[in-house]
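Lab channel / #folding
Pinned by the channel admin:
"Please post every new chain as: sequence first, then the structure tokens as a reply. Keep commentary short and put observations after the output so the thread stays searchable."

First post following the new format, from NK:
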Amino acid sequence: MAATIEVKYFNSFVLKKQPENTTGELVWNGSFGIPQASGGFKRNNNINPDKTWIVEEARIRGGYNNTSTDYGVRAYLVEEEPNSSVRFNSMIYSGIYNSRTGINQTNVFSVGEEITKSLDPANGSIQKLYAEDTNLIIFQESKVSRALIDKDAIYSAEGGGLPVSSFRTVIGQIVPYGGNYGIGTHPESFAVYGYNKYFVDSNQAVVLRLGANGIQEISSTGMKSFFRREIINVDSPSFGKGKLIGSWDIFNKEYNLSIQPSTPNTVFKTLSYDEKAAGWISFYNYKPSQSFSVRNRRYTTTSSKLYLHDSQNVQYGAFYGTLYPSSVKFVMNPRPSSQKVFNTINYEGSNGWEVKSYQSDKTGAGTSIGTTQFAFDQTAKVLSFVEGAYDSAIPPNTGTAATVQPIFRAGFDRKENKYCANLINNTQANFATQGSIGGEVIYGTEISGIKGFTTLVTMQTDNVTDVGGYKELFVVSSNYTYSSGY
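Reply from TO:
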């Protein structure tokens, strides 16, 4: 049933329905109940439900030009619009907190004081804050700045700045670092050790270090194209934002970065940067959810589990319960301008290394290759010293060679603690996809060695020699002769 309440045209009013308290009585102005004897009715009263509505008049007695009422003074309200606003480029701070004296003003934001500090919105949102001594480092998407804490700077006529302490100053002068670098939208890439801060600018696809000499690109030390390719693929318009998890390995003194794209079925990349080597030294086979260091030990998490790295109770190359072979990939390029035939490979180091791949540089397709785009020489796999041992009557890798004293080696042989092996050409095995170099009379397993200007070699630990043990690789070389042509 609709309610009709007459009001005079000149009187503003508020029409509202009154709530009901626990005793079933209507509430007047939110404080006093109206008993039924005084004209109050329950909301669900079927006799007169219209009396649950009231009119609040803006003028006393509802008369023309009578005294009007208003909300009056409202404490700490400076805007008529109560909606919140997001200032992505600003900082706000509350009152002080002191656990010793019991002062807690973290919920006090007085508009009578200057409690905000803003940066240039053109550089994007503030992604991370890091306090260092008496300075505050501010990381925006496209800029890194520092601000003075509890002090400000007074500049002289000559341009010099002198920090001056101030009782009222919380965040002082903001000074940007040189270079248009920021942290993108990946603050999880931030790590710190000493006075060096490491982070990734995903907008420019570079890895950066902020130190005494300002901001420097450490991704340019031999890995510029790699990071440009990998970091650009982290954020996908279709699958969302990936992760760039950075941390400082305090045990090995390295900056570790795990590049984890959001695109499904994309291989992650975890690698480390060493300050002494001034370069990126290794890739790893683990994908952490978080990474941190505590008391000279490094920890990572995955699948809600915590793992300790560099533990003496874990095998070398084992991550999260899985053992991975260690591998080294390098380029052999003696006399770059000469065409060569690589005949042997030699290395100094621990027992247990095998050659997984030995491949020459690629050459453009010739007329004899048909639709093949490139051609190159490659060798068969070179077995390790133990892996390739066999007797003359027992072939290698049959599982029975251990019962007979081996007298032959199908892979590396050892002489004076140096391991060496012949390179057997295996190009013919991939002739359907790569093909041999055009114009060759013989190729593949009929010849020994491979031809090329340079070779790309991959050596890795085997799965039979002291599995999970400590292995070293010092020097790798190859004997070669000059080629007379095809």
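NK: The chain is about 0% helix and 35% strand.
TO: also worth noting, The first strand starts at residue 13 and ends at 17.
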